Amino acid sequence: MSLKRIDPLLAIARVILIIIQVIAGVAAFFCTIAVPAILLFRAQIIAELQAEGVVPDALPVLAGMAAMGAIVLGMVFVVTLLCRRIVNTVGEGDPFVPENATRLSRMAWLMLAIQFFSLPLSAGAVMLEQMTEGNTIEGDGISLSAILLVIILFVLARVFRKGTEMRADLEGTV
Predict the structure, then answer these.
(1) Which of 18, 41, 47, 108 could cross-link with 153 by S-S, CB 3.0 to 4.6 Å?
(2) DSSP of 35-53
(3) Which H or E run contains 7?
């Protein structure tokens, strides 16, 4: 009976990914609930916004941002799920499986989609800032480091795909 050596880095990665996934899932759930809640409690929210010095026109912007936030957080949830599955294959000792190349490609596409969603989210943040009479709200827009991550994920997907092919060829020759 052989005991697998426990890699502390993989253990830490698993814990961090689970935490991120739980946070993204819970936040996506609440953003999803916020959209119909904004529509159902429109009058109360408008009264509260006016009491805070915010124009009622902010309500559709808030609903739209909550909907987009739910979508982005859902994508983050899936990215962390795919990453956890890759980490699990590394822990099992065989990361060069075809599924990991597919997972990396999906992660890259999702991260790219998240960047595209950041544009209207940033625009919404700017609109809200203008409607809140000077209260500062920050929007990031497209992140160059996130675009770099997308490129790295696409390249790694190719590396994994090629590594899997090379291993299959090698096993076929032996």
Answers:
(1) 108
(2) HHHHHHTHHHHHHHHHHTT
(3) none
- Sign of the dihedral defined by the CA atoms of residues 59, 65, 68, 69, in that order: negative
Can you tell me the distance from the alpha carbon of 23 to that of 146, in angstroms, rounded to the nearest whole number? 20
pLDDT of 3 strictly over 80: no
Note every long-range contact of 101-107, with CB atoms under 8 Å and residues 24 or more positions apart, other chains counting: 101/157, 101/158, 101/160, 101/161, 101/164, 102/157, 104/153, 104/154, 104/156, 104/157, 104/160, 105/153, 105/154, 105/157, 106/78, 106/82, 107/79, 107/82, 107/83, 107/153
Mean pLDDT of 80-92: 94
What CA–CA distance (Å, rounded) separates 57 from 50? 10
| Whole-number Å distance between alpha carbons of 56 and 1 | 68
Q: Which of 48-57, 87-96, 101-110, 116-125 has the lowest mean pLDDT?
A: 48-57
